[in-house]
Amino acid sequence: MSDKKISIGMFGFGCVGQGLYDVLSQSQGLQANIEKICVKDKNKKRKIDMSYFTYDKKDVLSRNNLDVIVELIDDAAEAFKIVSEAMNNGVNVVSANKKMLAENFEALYNLQEKNNVALIYEGSAGGSIPIIRNLEEYYDNELLSSFRGILNGTCNYILTRMELENKNYDETLKDAQTNGFAESNPWLDVAGYDTLYKTILLTVHSFGLILKPDQVLNLGIQNVSFDDIVYAREKGLRIKMIGTGYKIGENGTGKFRVYSIPQFVSQKDELYNVNYEYNGVEVEGAFSCKQTFVGKGAGSHPTGSAVLSDISALTYNYKYGYKKLKKQAKAKGKLPNGEALDNDFEIKVYIRYKDKNEIKDIEITSVEEEYKSARTNYIVANVKFKSLFTLKGNKESKVFVCAV
Asked: For the domain bounded by 1-343, which CATH number is listed?
């Protein structure tokens, strides 16, 4: 551990920010001092002395004694401005903002290269699980074939309680909000966007591939019903919200399939017993075979501890090497993006719907199972994967889709 005492400027003091403050104050080895914290709400009561706080971002960004800027705010557009300015000022940055990172990844990568600074974001994917650093360092030269993971604590908490406590979705969502496991507006979580952003980040570090959120399919659990839970239970399965990325073709010359959708998992699956707010990521390599990482995926202290680990890494002058990304860029002559993404394939899915008109835009190639009743209808069918994009982000749709 470096003996250097580092100076920190922070943006945001919500759940993760307070968690970072707590774990930092109890850290045994890291010598760090929070100089100033920029927040938005002037009327909110704070748990620490108000002398720490400012409401003007320039009070933090204009300081010339900071070793690191820690960005922990909700507004992705404002976060991008803050992080960009900090890096252009030659300051290292730690962030947990997966939306900001996923939407602006190429620009953020270029800013790191241009300014020779580090942007580290372990807390953005998997909560307390050190998955990004492992993909970067342990698997740096490994021929990874796939990753798949439960990456959102809110979805997993809701699905677990629905199954184990025989509750419906609306009731469970309210409980999750009351207990701090779901936001007052839970759309980004339950519609699969949070999982999508994290999946995009894992794709960069697994395969060296930069993707945009609109290129990758995400379908969520916002339409799940207890009927779906019962269907899964009768077949010895569980429903999990999973981000998936895998390689097709040999030696990295092929394409990649990446998506974030609910999936049925069997009792033999390592992710079957990852329940409540826990996250789990399974990585498969050519030589290391399958390895699974499990840990708390949500909450103040677990995510705060991941952010603290990133700050600590900066005392060693650590930065992501992006070896796979740079290797792909060298081979292609440019940063790799969506041209390597394959959305043109068939996938087997369970589709529960009320009216057949709701699924008219889904291209069904064959039906393996079908059930109709006055209350609910479902089919298990092979469909054109690309046609499922018609459901992406559709707040009016009541259709529930789960990969089989």
From this structure: 3.30.360.10
